[in-house]
Amino acid sequence: MRMSEQENKKGMTRREFIRKGGYVAGGVVGGGVLGGLITQQTLKTNKKGETSPQQDNGKGAEVSYQRAMMYFSNPEEFTVLSQAAERIFPADDLGPGAIDLDVPYYIDHQLAGTWGNNARDYMLGPFYPGLETQGFQSHLRRNEIFNQGISKIQSHSQEKYKKKFTELDEEEQDKVLTDFEKGKVKMDGVTSKDFFTLFRMAVLEGVYADPLYGGNRDMAAWKMKGFPGNQMSYLDKIEATDFLEIEPVSLTAHMPAQKKKSNG
């Protein structure tokens, strides 16, 4: 997506803006990610960022059992989600984008859990349009908003360019998503601007959350920002007078080692 004209005039790239702004810090992010994945899939990407879930044959790259669709059952919808996420956080010379960071899987898993079902939110009426400072007020669950949003991305692409969203070039995809950002696309029960805001927030959470939740593969986003991750303590570094570059640590590093039982 394009940044504001003022930011573009300053010559600041999208990735630099996010890195310097520190919009989202790593760590624990709310939402219920369910365990126990049944199928294993990986994203196949090309230079354009096109994605298609395919069954992993167990050869080549290391298999991650988190790379499976828990919420979406339609691969085409998942591909639209993936390419839209990549336009919000694209790969560049500074590091990987949303697809290579497994952000689409993070969002998919969140939509399947408590966050996507608004399990912890008050969901009874009445519902009134909120002020700008209040955010959107809707009777729809977040996964219902995403369902409708992805469908609208597809239909708006057809109306605007007579092509599927996945067939558009990057500039055309940006223009489609910009229409959502500006609230120009008609949606039911929620505005397209609210959907875009929710989607962008989910993308950035998936980029910077602990890998436990399915995104931020190999802590690559933390490494780009120089974020140390989930350190247990800084006592051994508190006396340092120079700036320290600390290798990031995920929550999985704090799990007790599983000792193998001896057969002897």
TrEMBL record:
Record-annotated membrane-spanning stretches: 21-38
Keywords, comma-separated and alphabetical: Membrane, Transmembrane, Transmembrane helix
Pfam families xref list: Gluconate_2-dh3
Keyword Transmembrane helix: yes
Protein name (database record): Dehydrogenase
Native organism: Lederbergia galactosidilytica
